[in-house]
Amino acid sequence: MRADYPLNLLRDIPVGQILSDDQMKGLEYTLEQLTEREQVVLECRYVKGMSYSQIGMGFALTGSRIQQIVRRALRKLSRPAIAAYITEGFAAHEASILENVRMAMEKKRSRLLAVEDKILEQDIEILQLPIRPYNCLKRHGIDTVQELLRLMLREDWNIQCRNLGRKGAKEVVESLLKLGIVDAEYPGCRRFITDKCESEKLCLTEQEWERVLDYFS
User: Exposure winner among 8, 74, 78, 121, fewest CB in 10 A?
Assistant: First the structure.
């Protein structure tokens, strides 16, 4: 392994130098969010120190095309929601996500006083989603509310979830907003909420609240 890894990769993302094991775990996690080909190409480039042309030979691609793949992967890693796993560390950023969720829940705490973070562990069925977005999330391996929130840290989360579409993603966002689990500023919500004031007026019907609270009775 080249002595300058992962410093060479961090320089090109760019983020500061990794100082802790938790930050290294965060880097590993962010790399796992890339496609398999992007991961292999970055390993060849930054760990093995191969040139673009050398890497291209293994993929039957030109050096220029490999360079494009590297740049695209670096752009993904440099997105604030993803890079935070590196700069803050995996466990530290996970904790901050949960804290943000708790803060959002405070806005509607009168109806969820006894529920608190337990809602994060619940099946996404609790969101009362229409059949299509519910099935799309399930097929993508999203079972719990917390897994959904992690997915939504990615700017292109709705694209990653095949066949969800913009309409389905908006339905997911609105369900989360109704429960007060997130607010309009949560990364995965911003693209689907055009009117922040209107989003704050979203609320569950009495019947919907009864279904939600039944999960905890």
Answer: 121
Give the largest CA-CA distance in the chain: 63
Q: For residues 147-179, b (16+ Cβ closer than 10 Å) or e, as one string?
A: bbbebbbbbebbeebeebeeebbbbbbbbbbbb
Amino acid at 62: T
Strand, helix or coil at 156?
A: coil
Amino acid, res. 192: F
Cis peptide before 130 (omega within 30 of 0): no
Tens digits of residue pLDDT in 41-99: 999 999 999 999 999 999 999 999 999 999 999 999 988 878 888 998 988 888 887 77
pLDDT tens per residue, range 126-166: 888 999 999 999 999 999 988 998 888 877 888 888 889 88
24 burial level (CB within 10 Å; 0-12, 13-18, 19+): middle
